[in-house]
Design a protein that fits this description.
alpha+beta; three-stranded antiparallel β-sheet; 3 helices; 3 strands
């Protein structure tokens, strides 16, 4: 069938979707979930026998060269950031296969910056315990 000049193809009509229903991506996922085979029932896990393993933590920060003092900047005003604390990240910054350490410090709130303001710290792991 050919259409002459200026002729247009009628728009395709969509069926109405009742309120509260959707034909978005969730519809397809629901259909796939319904068509999937049922999962097997979980099996019971037998607890280990024998003595519990012992774990010993040893403080090695000083030997590794990690000297860090956290400052939270607490004041009598009790600002929200004072209550949240800081953070740290272990990641391989120099792609040598050893995890390096970055520690975020706090700050004094409501006080003008000075030369002695607390700073963040980055410790590069040399792979020899330091």
């Amino acid at each position: 069938m050919s259409l002459g000049p200026g002729a247009s193809v009628p728009a395709r009509r969509r069926r109405a979707v009742p309120p509260g229903r959707s034909r978005g991506p969730g519809w397809a996922l629901l259909w796939l979930a319904a068509a999937a085979p049922a999962a097997a029932a979980p099996t019971a896990v037998t607890p280990p026998t024998g003595p519990a393993p012992t774990v010993q933590y040893v403080e090695v920060a000083r030997q590794a060269g990690i000297h860090f003092r956290y400052v939270n900047g607490a004041t009598e005003q009790r600002y929200l950031p004072e209550t949240m604390g800081s953070g740290a990240a272990f990641f391989d910054a120099d792609a040598d296969g050893d995890l390096d350490l970055f520690i975020v410090n706090g700050a004094y709130l409501g006080v003008p910056p000075t030369a002695t303001a607390p700073s963040d710290a980055f410790y590069r792991n040399r792979g020899d315990g330091t």
